[in-house]
Design a protein that fits this description.
517 residues; alpha/beta; eleven-stranded mixed sheet; six-stranded mixed sheet; 10 helices; 22% helix
Length: 517
């Protein structure tokens, strides 16, 4: 009884404290749900025991234990218990689980880059030194068929004609269950590929995964022809992605007991955004990100290259996870961050530019306004007018199975597909699988052509309700204080500084030469 009283008094003393290593996300955080990250020296096999010990000591309930990527666990408990646990020497930091967003394609107006009579300039561009050299062809002597591409996204339609018969989508898993209770099952086969019935079939966010996979590995519209493993993290009914769901997907890739393809050559692509800085009034925890830590550990443990979009806020890529772990010309990191480029609207201008939408002559600032930039961008690839696959349900509703879209969501799989082809070629020539860093350095060494920057001002914007994509521009302090929608979700201010191309990132490039007949 004495120990119980002391423990209660300890919690009471900590109730009003907010340790610097506890990161909360006002407005978009899931109430009472926290990701506990253990110290770096925590051994993989010892994580479950440490997690259970911490949970018992601080009276929190464990939802999920991660041990192969992130060394930690997802738990549910009162604020004062979380604060107390943060002071335990076994804990590195604790981050509130929070809502990020399912990526939203922004609509814009094979061996050859023409398919369905549509010219695919982005495939032509990646194997030419400059726009002036475009020749209407995309050479793919090495196709990457022996490489597995893990697509962390909103699900992939496995029977889409771009993935052939039998399909090259070899596995499809769902990591987006409703967290109705701590006992919710995390891993489940998603045989329907998700979001294929009712109104969700026409929701733009849920053809995103199919489109991304088609740009990476579509038979006619892709830059490679890899095997595909779909890891769905977006929830069909609300377009929500929780950070813990992303970590669940990363954990599955790293878990040798679940991923039977582990050890085979592979690349990982995540075309999505996870802001690191949710509350500009309290930036003390901005250096901590559970998702960044999980991805960094995944790459270290598996030595698979991880590709991610720079994201589409016309802002600083470093303010997003896992972009803050970028491997660039000037930084050694674990993640390859791909910014988006576009061509000029003048046929006489052969420069590459950072992709950005514009309203009249003024840059359109905010979500889906243009490619992020800054020192955390590794490389650039086309992001404008990308011809990609839609879910087949769109054909019934709109009469089309393909369409154009803009965004760094499509820049990233372009580079991931080129990397997969390079990995396959290296194995064929040397019988050795190149390391993740070797792949990154090869891409950096091959990159060519300057990408000219479009300068943007500092800005704020507000997030409203349960959908992080519903945003509007605002001045500091003008975000509504009213909570909308689910408990624990509401408004939050974002702040990003203006940035330039100070990472020295250039355009992706690889030309294998003309393929033999």
């Amino acid at each position: 009884m004495r120990h119980l009283i002391l423990l209660v008094l300890f919690f009471a003393a900590m109730a009003d404290a907010s340790p610097a290593n506890v990161i909360r996300h006002p407005g978009v955080g899931v109430e009472g749900e926290y990701m506990v990250v253990l110290q770096d020296q925590a051994a993989t096999e010892g994580v479950p025991g440490v997690a259970r010990s911490l949970a018992a000591t601080y009276n929190v309930s464990i939802h999920t234990i991660w041990q192969y990527s992130l060394r930690g666990f997802l738990c549910h408990g009162p604020e004062q218990n979380i604060n107390a646990m943060a002071g335990d020497p076994r804990v590195k930091f604790i981050e509130q689980n929070f809502v990020t967003g399912a990526p939203q394609p922004r609509m814009s107006a094979m061996q050859y880059t023409s398919f369905n009579n549509e010219y695919q300039w982005h495939l032509d561009r990646v194997d030419e030194l400059s726009i002036a050299n475009l020749d209407g062809q995309h050479n793919m002597c090495t196709e990457g068929r022996t490489v597995y591409a893990y697509v962390i996204d909103s699900g992939v339609q496995s029977d889409h004609p771009q993935f052939e018969t039998p399909t090259r989508v070899v596995e499809s898993l769902d990591f987006s269950p409703e967290r109705s209770s701590p006992s919710t099952t995390v891993f489940s086969n998603d045989l329907t590929n998700g979001c294929t019935t009712g109104a969700n079939t026409t929701n733009p966010s849920f053809w995103h995964g199919t489109a991304v996979a088609s740009v990476l590995a579509g038979t006619q519209v892709g830059v490679a022809k890899t095997q595909i493993i779909s890891l769905k993290v977006a929830r069909c009914d609300s377009k929500i992605v929780l950070t813990a769901d992303l970590i669940d997907a990363v954990e599955w890739i790293a878990d040798p007991n679940l991923n039977t393809h582990l050890g085979e050559p592979g690349v990982v692509n995540h075309s999505g955004y996870v802001p690191k800085w949710r509350d500009d009034t309290d930036p003390s925890g901005s250096d901590f990100s559970a998702y960044s830590q999980a991805v960094a550990n995944l790459v270290t443990e598996t030595d698979m290259p991880f590709f991610t979009s720079a994201d589409n806020f016309s802002a600083d890529a470093c303010e997003f996870a896992p972009n803050d772990r970028a491997h660039t010309n000037f930084m050694s990191g674990t993640v390859f961050v791909v910014g988006g480029s576009s061509a000029s609207d003048s046929s006489s201008d052969t420069n590459d530019y950072r992709w950005q939408n514009a309203t009249s002559s003024v840059p359109d600032i905010g979500l889906d306004s243009g490619s992020n930039a800054g020192e955390c961008v590794s490389i650039y690839a086309p992001a404008n007018d990308i011809y990609a696959a839609r879910h087949s349900a769109y054909e019934t509703v709109y009469g089309v199975l393909y369409d154009w879209a803009d965004g760094t969501s499509f820049s990233s799989p372009l580079v991931a597909g080129i990397a997969a082809r390079y990995i396959e070629k290296q194995i064929a020539q040397t019988s050795t699988k190149p390391s993740a860093v070797a792949v990154y350095n090869w891409l950096l060494g091959n990159a060519s052509a300057t990408v000219y920057n479009v300068q943007t001002p500092e800005y704020w914007y507000c997030h409203e309700g349960t959908d992080p994509t519903e945003t509007y521009r605002s001045d500091p302090g003008n975000c509504s204080s009213t909570r909308i929608g689910q408990t624990g979700l509401g408004t939050a201010a974002f702040h990003f500084p203006s940035v330039s191309n100070d990472s020295g990132a250039e355009m992706v490039y690889w030309d294998e030469g003309y393929c033999p007949p």
